[in-house]
Amino acid sequence: MDLTLSEEEREIREWVRTFVRREIMPLEPEVLARERRNERGLRAEELKALQDKAKESGFFGVHTPEEYGGMGLGAVMNALVEVELGRSFVQFKFGGDADNILYSANDAQKERYLLPTIAGERKSCFAITEPGAGSDARAIRTTARRDGDEWVISGEKTFITGGDEADFTMVFAVTDPDLHREGRTDESVTCFLVDRDMGWKSEYIDTMGEWGPASLVFDDVRVPHENILGEEGKGFALAMQWIGKGRYLLPARALGACERLVEMGMEHARNRVTFGQPIAERQAIQWMVADSATEIEALRWLVLAAAWQVDAGLDSRQSQSMAKLYGGVKANEIVDRVLQMHGGMGYTRELPVERWYRELRLLRIYEGTDEIQRRTLARNLLRGHASVRGHLG
Ligand SMILES: Cc1cc2nc3c(=O)[nH]c(=O)nc-3n(C[C@H](O)[C@H](O)[C@H](O)COP(=O)(O)OP(=O)(O)OC[C@H]3O[C@@H](n4cnc5c(N)ncnc54)[C@H](O)[C@@H]3O)c2cc1C
Description:
The protein is of the alpha+beta class. The protein has helices spanning about 5-25, 30-35, 45-55, 75-85, 105-120, 175-180, 185-190, 235-245, 250-270, 285-310, 315-340, 345, 355-360, 370-380, and strands at about 125, 145, 150-160, 170-175, 190-195, 200-205, 215-225, 230, 275, 275-280. The strands form three sheets. Strands 1-4-5-8 form a four-stranded mixed sheet. It has a four-stranded antiparallel sheet with strand order 2-3-7-6, with no helix packed on it. A hairpin with a 2-residue loop joins strand 2 and strand 3. It starts with 6 loop residues before the first helix and ends in an 11-residue tail after the last helix. It binds flavin-adenine dinucleotide. This is Medium-chain specific acyl-CoA dehydrogenase, mitochondrial.
């Protein structure tokens, strides 16, 4: 078994690591100060300038297939990139990315939605959650009623990331209420590409985090039939495909944050003297460091094992759920320890620790809560679809 990185993987990771250190981390004090003033941390023009700079070195569309002008990096490489980006709280992402399900678009839709999204000219959002349907996504009630060559969409979506900025949404609505009542969601839900100027409204939702999601309201919004993404009635599978696009990427980002946080904690512990000795000399603090480093290492291999399975074309769903669950739980424990190591300073808004504390909390909620991951993991095991021996058997 060879657990070393290839030459190419190492080179790409080093490039991203240097980019984060030289271009992104220096922005942190200003970004933090703006966020403290309730402004957007990284402004759109600054993000664009950083993305353009990265593009000059070929870093564009890290997830995007090469035929669409992207880098088409594999899952392991994507995870390694995400870890490096996670080391800063500045909300940077490389340009040239688009939602995976937009590749299911027909040629005309690709021209209007996929290509401009990759080019950074349009912004999308993914809308399935409703006030009455979160974990239980099959309980959605937004409807789309056929009227000639159009569909009329009515309902409300909530907690939609980027919903207040997007100029089109991929919205999921019930198109066959009879099948839906029978619980045949795999045939009753359709995904529509809906431009904002077709009439949906959004409202920002204030959250613990720095980037709030939005609620979207569809009040008899008329959408042409040609705006169905994929097939009529087959939307639920697309929604699951979107959510499953890379569950390992969320804990990968948190992993980078945890590495940085523990480094900050150790630095503080070496310098903070109490009762005549640096707190780093105290076993209570050393155990926090040791436990955190061990959990970071375990998370690293959960993330990379899941990503490796994706690249190998294996069924990675169990491993991805494990990485998401463990990452969410452990990142929250680690940031809490690091905050504790900093004492009162950890609780202030002078340091970014409390910011990470709030941000990492989300990982236990979105794209499948801890409880839903556990439900999936246990069901797969108890029904014999997965083994406690993992993919090695
Ligand atoms: C910041 C943010 C961004 C988001 N972005 C998006 C987005 O872009 N698009 C989108 O469509 N959605 C998005 N969501 C929605 C997110 O996916 C849901 O909030 C999440 O799936 C949980 O659903 P819920 O909030 O309705 O909680 P509920 O489903 O009501 O769950 C409440 C609690 O009950 C638990 N629970 C539920 N069912 C069970 C069960 N069977 N067994 C045991 N426990 C259970 C849950 O784990 C949770 O602890 C976002 C949410 C947030 C907070």
